[in-house]
Description:
Layout: E1 3-6, E2 10-16, E3 19-26, H1 28-36, E4 43-50, H2 55-63, E5 66-67, E6 71-74, E7 80-86, E8 93-99, E9 119-122, H3 127-135, E10 143-147, H4 150-164, E11 169-173, H5 174-181, H6 186-193, E12 200-204, E13 210-213, E14 218-221, H7 235-250, H8 255-272, H9 279-283, H10 286-300
Parallel strand pairs: 1-4, 1-9, 2-7, 4-5, 4-6, 9-10, 10-11, 11-12
Antiparallel strand pairs: 2-3, 7-8, 12-13, 13-14
Helix pairs in contact: 1-7, 3-4, 5-6, 7-8, 8-10
Bound molecules: adenosine monophosphate (AMP).
Residues 8, 10, 12, 26-28, 82, 98, 124-125, 149, 151, 233-237 line the site of adenosine monophosphate.
Amino acid sequence: MQLITVGTVAFDRIETPFGVAEKTVGGAATYISLAASVFLDKMGLVSVVGDDFPEATMDQLRQRGVDLQGLEVLQGKESFFWAGRYHYDMNTRDTLETRLNVLLDLDPTLPEDYRTAPYVMLGNLDPTVQAKVLDQMTERPALVVMDTMNFWMDSAMEKLREVIGRVDILTINDAEARQLSGEHSLVKAAGKILTMGPKYLVIKKGEHGALLFSKDRVFFAPALPLEDVVDPTGAGDTFAGGFIGFLARTQDHSFDNLKRAIIVGSALASFCCEKFGIERMLEVSREDIDQRIQEFVDLVDFDIELVG
Ligand code: AMP
């Protein structure tokens, strides 16, 4: 395996000011795997679903090189369910409901060929499960990227801090960076979080782009201004999947390559927002992606000669 991903595989109910999706396939690991599959063809997924989860989605994942030996299907149980409502700005949202369901039973045993994967993506999930995945790797992976959210900060901060201490790169949004660090300034927040273990921190700011911090450098990538944002759900996960997929493909963890990975992740995330759920990610072509990366380059390209 080139990459293994642990995270939720879910059903979502999504409400925006412009429309509703009553029950659509989502989940952090679903979005991450679909995005990473743009660059990789041998990935493993670690999660759990109930017998209500569609076989057709599992086939779509398999067709993209996502191995599902690590996806447990529990008979007679329901998949993880999340419901959220977006505000008018389509950038902020409220969680209306989180039903952990099968997630309460997740105690993963990694298939043998997952244990040597050089790249590990700890998608948003119970930090106890994230730690169990790391514990089962036969040697320290080349790169471990972790995502999390306020839900786990509120309910399992101590365990979360322990896992954060074991990863190379943490990706969280601006509100979560403030909550985790207790600092309002994102620069101060980044400084504090980088003392907790990770070498790099990515702060996602939705439609306002993403910041990449190391101890002494910072890089900013904008989000592409889209004419229509239909549903931003999964944009953060799609970003993370594109980011780690690109790094796994290029095997270069320098700051300059991380900058490229941020642009690639942002380009993929922009597609994710164009339709509800995973729909757009299932149809996006390599050509679409290359064209969009070029749009990013054009968006921020300028010449300046200082006068005076
Ligand atoms: P994002 O928009 O990238 O933050 O991710 C949205 C996805 O995260 C949805 O498809 C949800 O199923 C999933 N999700 C929501 N709440 C949680 C949670 N507490 N833990 C793990 N995944 C979650």
